[in-house]
Amino acid sequence: MAVPSARAVVAFSCVGHAFSHLFEPIFFVVALVLPEHFGLSYGEVLGLVLVGKLLYGIAAPVAGWLGDRWSMTGMIGVYFLGMGAGGVLTGLATRPVEVAAGLAVTGLFGSIYHPVGIAWLVRGAENRGRALGLNGVFGGLGPAVAALSAGLLTEWQGWRAAFIVPGVVVMATGLLFVALVRLGVIVEAGADVGTEVPVSRRDALRAILVLVTTMLCGGLIYQATQASLPKVFADNLDASLGGGLLAVGTAVSVVYGVAGLMQFATGHLADRFPPAAVYAVLTLLQAPFLYMIGVAESLPLIVVALAAVALNIGVLPAENILLARYAPPNWRGTAFGIKFILAFGVSALGVPLVWFIHGATGGFFWLFVLLTGLSLAAALTALALPPERG
């Protein structure tokens, strides 16, 4: 790729990653006030996002296949415009079923980013760990900005603005992207820029089986943590740290904003050390912090939540390097799509898990005990990855 195009790919891939994690955190913050607007329980409100979350993962392989077979740049343009429109539709909803429909549109078009955007970035990156780490930082900034903006916009203009304003911003970004493609500033990439050590079919199959297990565990942890943290903070933050929706949104914003920076460091580690080792160690380290979320209060709760989220998303550069290494280049988008069926489709079951455990126990202690066990299981499974060669 020409240098201007390569830089534009990195820029739009990073911005696109931030946007891909925008609307779910907005919903989970806004969900704290929706019960009084629609006369629903907290658990029933959480159920409105379930179809959108399922589509976010289930549609990903189709999006990846279209990126492989049609055009990655074309799919990225569809992503920006479609997901932004879904956000606006959600904000214009007047009934719960319309909120669910708007979130479903957002999830459907949002499913495009991870299989297409990451494969698009990997194809043009020489230092994949560094590029994926930078991309991951923006992925972490998405929930941080979303949680803060949701709190501010909801208290300033109402919950509808929390969806409509970012929806318009995402659509405007899409229009700019399409214009740059038409002007030839952004072009479709050819073959990979970096080189890969050949892998055997046996090692590839072994790695994929391991990664399927670890990605499912990691996705469940991510989804359940993201869905529960606003309520955990609302229930357990000390009055001295403030109160109300803005305080909760700020706390979630701090956790995801600071945690997102972790990926730049872990991406650098994955370039310097065996990615499989980095992957296993980071997965193991998150376990004690997940447990502590279930028992901590006030400021220590924010600290341990930040550590748990940072380690949970910090594994992603190493994970994506491993997936790109063991997947055939001409099927990479499809492979990333299958990953996100696990990470965001099947793992969407983490949301009903949150309301089931909260409804049964009145708290979140046993939820985080379960997530601790998933982290330990994933770390042990990661030890079965093929040995590094080359």
Report what the structure shows.
The chain has 390 residues and is mainly α. It has a single domain (3-188, 201-382), classed as MFS general substrate transporter like domains (Growth Hormone, Chain: A, Up-down Bundle). Helices cover 80% and strands 0% of the residues. The chain is built from 20 helices and no strands. The chain has helices spanning 3-20, 23-30, 34-38, 42-47, 50-58, 60-69, 72-92, 96-110, 113-123, 128-157, 159-182, 201-236, 244-260, 262-272, 275-293, 298-314, 316-326, 332-345, 350-361, 365-382.
Shape assignment: globular
Give the CATH class.
Mainly Alpha
Q: What is the count of β-strands?
A: 0
Q: State the CATH topology.
A: Growth Hormone, Chain: A
CATH homology superfamily: MFS general substrate transporter like domains
Listing every helix as H and every strand as E from the N terminus to the C terminus, the arrangement reads HHHHHHHHHHHHHHHHHHHH
Largest sheet: none
Mean pLDDT: 87
The CATH architecture term is: Up-down Bundle
**Helical percent range?**
over 70%
* First-to-last CA distance: 27 Å
Q: What percentage of amino acids are in beta strands?
A: under 5%
Quick overview of this protein structure:
By secondary structure, the chain is mostly helical.
Based on the model shown, name its key terms.
390 residues; mainly alpha; Growth Hormone, Chain: A; 20 helices
